[in-house]
Amino acid sequence: MVQRYVMAIDQGTTSTRCILFDARGRLVSLAQREHRQHFPQPGWVEHDATEIWRNLTKIVPRALADAGAEPGQVAALGIANQRETTVLWDRHTGLPVGRAIVWQDTRTDAVVEQLAREPGAARVRELCGLPLATYFSAPRIRWLLERTPGLRERAERGDVLFGTLESWLIWNLTGGPEGGVHVTDVTNASRTMLMNLRTLSWDDELLAFFGVPRAMLPRIRPSTEVYGTTSRVAPGIRIAAALGDQQAALFGQTCFAPGEAKCTYGTGSFLLLNTGTTPVPSTHGMLTTVGFRIGDEPAVYALEGSMAVTGSLVQWFRDGLGLISSAPEIETLARTVSDNGGCYIVPAFSGLFAPHWHSEARGIIAGLTSYITKGHLARAVLEATGWQTREVVDAMNADSGLTLSTLRVDGGMTADNLLMQFVADVLDVPVVRPMVAETVSLGAAYAAGLSVGYWPDLEGLRRNWHRAGQWLPEMDPARRELEYAQWRQAVGLTFGWTRPAPAAAPGTDVIDLVQADHRRLEELFRELRNDEADRGALVAELTALLAAHAIATSRVLRSAGAGVDIFTDLLTLTGTGADVDAEKALLRLERVVDEHIRAEERGLLNQLRRTATAAERLGLGRAFAAERARRVDQARAGGLRREPGTPVHLS
Ligand SMILES: Nc1ncnc2c1ncn2[C@@H]1O[C@H](COP(=O)(O)OP(=O)(O)O)[C@@H](O)[C@H]1O
Ligand SMILES: O=P(O)(O)OC[C@H](O)CO
Fold first, then answer.
1. Which one of 218, 348, 490, 569 counts the least CB within 10 Å of its CB?
2. Ranges for the Carbohydrate kinase FGGY N-terminal domain (predicted)?
3. How far apart are CA 80 and CA 579, in angstroms?
4. How many helices (H) and strands (E) are present in the chain, helices listed first?
5. What are the φ/ψ torsions at residue 2 (nearest 5 degrees)?
């Protein structure tokens, strides 16, 4: 009998893989090619979509040849892809409009900040499940349409098309300019910020908010469906599934039931929890996203904690610093020391993703002393992934009301035993890894195989899951809590690096929030000493922030009414510009704020560290963020007003 296979394409951030699987879910052949990472400016990350397509045309025939298979032996093809990465191309020539803008790229920072101030901003998360951030596609489309002459008109006419990578590859595989099928799957569409999470269609309100013409968008289809048949590269193969790579990994790990979760450790790391057929809104900085949709069945949703920089921190250690020559060497180097020596690396290279969502944050190495060696730095690199996972799991537990009891893992970084042990230690739950490490590809293959009846049902797929590795928690709880507190302190230092920190995502630790305000206030006073600074803008920000911080602190953290009344000085500062009275008010405020910061950081914040649990601090953080955001909005909208019963005191 002729062997039949399922083909998976995993179009990832660093490489593209083509894998053939057999009916037992075993890997039969694998071909892979890396593509170039372009970093034209700090914070910019680009890929050449044509290079990725060319790579695909090489690896597909190679994977077939290695398995000794003809295209006719491939029952179906499933595609998994890096999500959010934005490609625009000309429908007639098939050529991309510039390079693809990658999910890690932060160039839309200012666009996002401007959008956040627009009237519809509050509705965005409600409609699409995502916070306004540089991570997603819609701000990138807007950025491109605004900056490329004539592009908007071409997009409105449908001459220029948008797609994420699965869309681009399907269009090319099915003929490109000669009748290529322009579709996206629902999981990828759920990462654009343009799809309504409930109707699973492009949403007019979101399209208007981001200024994206409908004519350029692909049709949204389920994750499993025969979208078309390949007419190029290996003609005659049915393209029967597509999923964002993290959703594919959820599928490949057979997390089909609500409550099941996995974390994929690759360039970035992504923890997804299946929440069933109703979307669960997050109040702790998680994303609400589509997990998968099988044919016409109801969509299954997921909560996701996305960590932008994990494996790529190891790459940076290798390529940027040259301290190792291959990724696995990081473990050897880290094992030359017994702990991190007090050193923490917070890799906010693309801002901070979940649960913080601070696009303006940038990375930091904290706790340096002359004791620190490259071994300690290697440990800090690996531990950064562990602590980010801990933050995400805490937030995920708080959002879902469930307590994660085991973590299923996969991806390139799971080859690192030291790291996997550390993850088990900081989460205090067992970590397990399945036999097939290529879970993303396996998930795409499973979905495609199901779609064409190669595999009959989900239960059969579950039976293919076998445990290959397990790590059990061993860390002393007191050490875990102490180090976690230090990690969070280091995280707080990254906020507001490129510009004022935004109103914090609900659910952030109150200590981080208060400290972030303090750092910004210090910065504003410093900037105001510069005669060439934009004084009006700085004063407006300072007075709004100071009033909001004072009210939120006294309402949420201490008894109202204590301390020095700063309201009159704030009014003088805003009302009269740079005259003598305003200068005096500014000096007085600076002194009061300076004392407040020192007293609060030595006293109240340490007291909270000692006495409040992580959950209590998150709760206080939510209350603080809400009160503060309300007061900032009030101050921006109507200027400063004294409200009866709400003294503006700093103590
Ligand atoms: N032994 C290791 N220890 C730590 N990190 C590793 C190790 N091996 C690979 N990595 C990291 O894992 C990432 C590759 O994982 P992979 O799952 O292939 O990523 P992606 O699918 O995002 O391209 C790289 O960023 C690399 O630095
Ligand atoms: O290519 P990966 O595996 O790093 O995954 C990237 C994610 O899909 C980004 O959201």
1. 490
2. 5-252
3. 62
4. 22, 23
5. -75, 130
Q: Crossing angle of helices 580-602/510-528, nearest 10°?
A: 150
The two structure tokens encoding residue 314: 């190891």
Compute the distance from residue 45 Cα to the ligand 2 centre, in Å. Answer: 13
Q: What separation in Å is there between the alpha carbon of 313 and the centre of ligand 1? A: 10
11, 264, 314, 383: residue to mutate for ligand 1 pocket, most atoms within 8 A of CB: 314
Q: How many A from CA of 646 to the centre of ligand 2?
A: 47
Least confident of 105-109, 380-384, 430-434, 632-636: 632-636
Q: Cβ neighbours of residue 392 under 8 Å, at least 6 residues apart?
A: 271, 286, 305, 307, 354, 355
SS3 92: coil
Average pLDDT, the chain: 90
CA dihedral 151, 152, 156, 161 (to 10 degrees): 50
Greater model confidence, 53 or 404 = 53
| Burial (CB count within 10 angstroms: exposed 0-12, middle 13-18, buried 19+), residue 2 | exposed
Decide if the complex's ipTM is over 0.95: yes
Is the pLDDT at 506 greater than 60? The verdict is no
Probe residue for ligand 2, chosen from 17, 83, 185, 441 as the CB with the greatest number of ligand atoms within 8 Å: 83
Question: Which amino acid residue places its CA nearest to atom 10 of ligand 2?
Answer: 83
Q: Model pTM?
A: 0.76
- Residues belonging to the binding site are 13-15, 17, 83-84, 135, 245-246, 267, 311, 315, 412
Q: Which residue, chain included where needed, has tokens 């000085």?
A: 569
Residues 6+ apart with CB under 8 A from 587: none
pLDDT for 578 equals: 54
360 lines ligand 2 (CB under 6 A): no
d(CA 305, CA 262) in angstroms, rounded, equals 11
Q: What is the pLDDT of residues 283-297, one digit of tens each?
A: 888 999 999 999 999
- Cβ(330) to ligand 1 under 6 A? yes
Nearest to 467 by CA among 409, 420, 393, 428: 409
Ligand 1 geometric centre to CA of 119 (Å): 41
Six-digit token pair at 534? 């934009």
Tokens of 127: 């409609």
Q: CB neighbours of 235 closer than 8 A, spacing ≥ 6?
A: 71, 229
Ligand 1 atom 26: residue of nearest CA: 311
- For residue 83, the ligand 2 atom closest to its alpha carbon is 8
Asked if residues 192 and 123 have their Cβ atoms less than 8 Å apart, the reply is no
- In the numeric block, the tokens 């909001």 are attached to 548
Hey, which of 9, 10, 11, 13 would you mutate to test ligand 2's pocket, going by the most ligand atoms within 8 Å of its Cβ? 13
Q: What whole-number distance in Å separates Cα of residue 59 and Cα of residue 77?
A: 14
Which residues contact residue 153 at a Cβ distance below 8 angstroms, ignoring those fewer than 6 apart? none
CB 245 near ligand 2, within 6 Å: yes
In the predicted structure, residue 8 carries a pLDDT above the cut 50: yes
